[in-house]
Amino acid sequence: MTKVENEWQVYRTRFLIRARQLAGPLEFRDALGREHRGQRGDYLVESSDGTQRIAPREIFEDVYVAMGPAVKKWPLLNRRNFSLSDLKRRTSARAEMLA
Predict the structure, then answer these.
(1) Number of domains in the chain
(2) Domain contains 82
(3) First and final CA of the chain: distance in angstroms?
(4) How far apart are CA 53 and CA 38, in angstroms?
(5) Exposed, middle or buried, 91 (CB in 10 Å: 0-12/13-18/19+)?
(6) Domain for residue 2, yes or no?
(7) Is 49 helix (H, G, I), strand (E, B) or coil?
(8) What is the predicted pLDDT for the residue at 66?
(9) Distance CA 78, CA 22 (A)
(10) Do residues 15 and 55 make contact, with C-beta atoms less than 8 angstroms apart?
């Protein structure tokens, strides 16, 4: 993983997420095989189910509202454990809704 500028912070929209602003380029492949790429200033976003993605700075800062520093780990009650097939099914359903 690359350097990050700050510690995890909690943000909210409809859902709570944790995010870190990137201090340099970052590329990774998620559990579903999707490639994620970000540049300095973009955000590494972690959902309560443990999935991670990169959000462009302009979009992230327009959508999310900071709520303060995050705890080291998500509270157990908020964390969902999905199998890979569950994640694929949820991602596919979300893509169909957006199409």
Answers:
(1) 1
(2) yes
(3) 32
(4) 9
(5) middle
(6) no
(7) coil
(8) 83
(9) 25
(10) no
Side by side, the strands of the sheet bearing 16-21 are 52-55, 43-47, 16-21, 9-12, 65-69
pTM: 0.60
Q: What is the pLDDT of residue 35?
A: 96
Tell me the C-alpha distance between 68 and 10, whole Å. Answer: 6
Instruction: State the pLDDT confidence band at 83, using cuts at 50, 70 and 90.
Output: low
Q: Is residue 4 part of a domain?
A: no
Residue 38 located in a structural domain: yes
pLDDT per position as a tens digit, 38-71: 999 999 999 888 899 999 999 999 888 888 787 6
List the domain range (segments joined by +) for residue 14. 9-98
Binned at pLDDT 50, 70 and 90, residue 78 comes out as very low
- The DSSP element (H or E) to which 98 belongs, if any, is helix 84-98
